[in-house]
Write a structure and sequence with these properties.
- It is a single chain.
- This protein has a 43-stranded mixed β-sheet that branches. A two-stranded antiparallel sheet has the order 17-18. Strands 23-24 form a two-stranded antiparallel sheet.
- The protein starts with a helix and ends in a 17-residue tail after the last strand.
- It is elongated.
- It is mainly beta.
Length: 882
Amino acid sequence: MKFLRSRRGLAVIAALLVILFLFRPGIQQLRNRIGKSIGSALGRRVDINDVHLRILPRPGFDLEGLVIYDDPAFGAEPMIRAQDVFAAIRLRSLLRGRIEIAKMSATEPSINVVRNSQGRWNLAGLIERNAQIPAAPTQKAASESRPAFPYLEATSARINFKIGQEKKSYALTDADVALWQDSENSWGARMKAQPVRTDFNLTDTGRLQIDANWQRSRNLRLTPVRLTLAWENGQLGQITKLVSGRDRGFRGAITLTANVSGTPEALAIESRVKIDGLRRYDIVDSRNVNVATSCTGKYSAASKTLADIACESPVGGGTIRLRGSVGKEEDTRDVSTGNVRKKTVGIDTATLRSVERGFDYPAYDLTLIAENVPLASALALFHQAKQQLPGDLTATGAVEGEFHAAREGGETEVSGSGMASDVHLVSNGGKDSITLGDVPLTLMGNRAVTSSLARAKPKANAVSDGMGNEAERGAAYLRIGPASLQVNTSSPASAGGWISRSGYRFFLRGDLELNNLFRLESALGLPAVRPAAEGDAKLDVSISGVWQGLAAPSALGTAQLRNVRAETHGLNTPIVIPSATVVLGPETFSMQKLSVQTGSTHWSGSIAAPRHCSPACAFQFDLTADRLSAEDFAEWFIPHPAKRPWYRILNTGDPEGPSPFMALRAHGVLRVARLELKKIQATDVVTELSVERGKFTMTGLHAAMLHGIHQGSWTVDAAVRPPRYQGSGTLENISLAQLGALMNDPWIIGSADGKFDLDTSGGSSREVLDNSDGTLRFEMRNGSLAHIQIPGTHAPLSVYRFDGDLRTKKGVWELSDGRLESRDGLYHVTGTAGAENGLSFVLTRSDDQTWSLTGTLTNPHVAPANQERGGTEVKAASDVKP
């Protein structure tokens, strides 16, 4: 170095530069020489498209289109491909008459890391070859005559991973890689990169940094190595998607550090994982929950086994410890029988590949120990994983236990037990408490061969665990309870359940007051409708779900309701339920054996509705009412000021907005023993009723009324203003005397049939009559019109038969062709009747005598009328008294 800095050294360098500038070596010869030099060092075939000499700022060569081919045992694709590479010349080598590369820098190269079918990595051969090259250290002394190992670096590189000929979706991008020889027998390397998957758009996976050094050894398995790994600033959701292909729905900043030392046959591993701000993606909470664990272990490349695992996680004032070993299973063939059996041989890349298939676990022998783990810490974590939990929910108690799990030869064995002691939950400012006392914990599972198929179809592999719970056949599960559950001062109920790798199920059995049941649902954050109600329920229900996708839990079971009193928005009167059975099925919700009271009406029957669907779903019903009246409907549904009932104290406030009954969709059968519509009473009413958001359609409406029968269909559209009414059907054997009695005037007697079609609207009976539009085909038999007496006769007008077609338009009824058979002759009747103008009819007897009928039904006027031949004019005459 002193010589190079001296004037003589500078002169020599200047002379060499002039010579290189004036007498440039042949590009083809130089390209081949550089390619052979690199290929000899790496033991790989090298191609270079072009070479350019660079003088400033540092002498060297610009290499274009550098391709370093891989060993044919790993495939035909190049191991390294770089378009732009700068190779800096070591100036001292020029003084010795040779060209020596001091530093080689590649920009945006593509690097393939490959593992072949024999389980060998292509990088292993390069490391072994480096150990055999008698090169001087990268920073060699000036007196050293041997060529120095160049400083190799790459910026903005992309590192791809291949298993055989298959390129995996995992890759490292924006990688800065460096490799050098530290000393006579050691090498160093470092890398900074961002992990990605090519099949997903991942942007926040953090930065991976690796620093490594290793010693010279002819056997890679005996090479001493020291490695430090740090994975920082990764977002948990992005990393779970990177590893498993799915965002598991949790957020947090994850940091992983690891130190590895030893030889590949015996590597000592120390690691620490920390997650800051752990929470579910859709939960925003001011509480900051941090999770951390530290682990040590020993890995053997020969047996591919991770042994002496020791992990420790502090939780509040307690600790969770994990001890054991993990290996890998591979198939071996029994020579005597030819059968394939499993053998535990350790972990290798096949285990990593299983991650993409959905976390197929290798062989393992693990023990988990929980020591004085406070439930308060577990609840803090649960707050970040479960929606709708009360913010002030607190827990006391602690968990102790030891659990063991082992898997070998495709068979899994689990065992262990523990206890959650003095479990007590408090919420609602201390007003609501849930006491469980001591809850036993038992790890259970059947010794059976597990497979991806069995895990994919847990419902088909369900067995009872003796507590009414179901767990997956062959899969381990943690049984919790049973334990005594008490809400506030209620009678104790029985609770328990299980959790497994794929899901969970909990049950509740016993008697609870509804208000305590609602408090329990609120405390556990269960989605449920909580009406203003009080009463008792005998429960036999379970809540189950799967972890995948953070799906909402599903409730199944039955509840026997007793003496329930409730209110609902849109209904002015309370609902009283003396008894009912609620059945929660997988697909339907139903209320059976109903006994319900609304006002003075008693209901019985059943109601069913689909679950897990949008509000557009319709429910089914089969209901019977002892009596209904128009006044009842007005009392129930028409809003009016009222004194606040005592049971409304269960509501925090009065709901606002439109009645939910206007959004109701339902279909079923309705039976009414007695229906009262003003003064009309109908009995034995049966109809198929369809409710569609305020539109009521009654099909096949059968009713006994006025000593006769009604058959027809009606539609009432209450969603429009004013309400619209449409009906059609028949009337049979209607008692006209009953009709007169309802009108408080016996103006007509006899019986009648009819066929009607009506369309009207209105908010009152007067509006309904004024807006009516329709037809009535009628036939009256064996009666009389008490207030009508034809002049010259001595009795009211008798009717053997009276038929015709009535048409109504805007409240005016018109009879165009009526035929009335009486004992004094056959009459032809035409005219109109309306609320404003009264009666205006013309009666023409078969002997051509004509009379006009005016006035009202209860006070008609009959007078003779002269009718000219060929004309229709009727002249008024004096009234004829009976």
